[in-house]
Write a structure and sequence with these properties.
It contains two helices and no strands. The chain has helices at residues 2-17, 44-59. Keywords: Membrane, Signal, Transmembrane, Transmembrane helix.
Length: 60
């Protein structure tokens, strides 16, 4: 049992000894995606409805 505890302690000590290095970490810039919106996106549906209503009025 003592050998198991000693082995676990040595393993923990050895793993923390190699955890770091002297090189600077490489941090990549986050990707930013912007969605573009045209100025006519909100006017298309009302124009289509206006054309449909005008066609219905002209047909009656």
């Amino acid at each position: 049992m003592k050998k198991l505890v000693l082995a676990a302690a040595l393993t923990a000590a050895a793993s923390t000894a190699y955890a770091g290095n002297l090189e600077e970490p490489v941090v990549e810039a986050p990707v930013v995606v912007e969605e573009t919106q045209g100025s006519s996106n909100g006017i298309i549906l009302p124009l289509i409805l206006l054309v449909v209503v005008a066609a219905a009025v002209a047909a009656s």
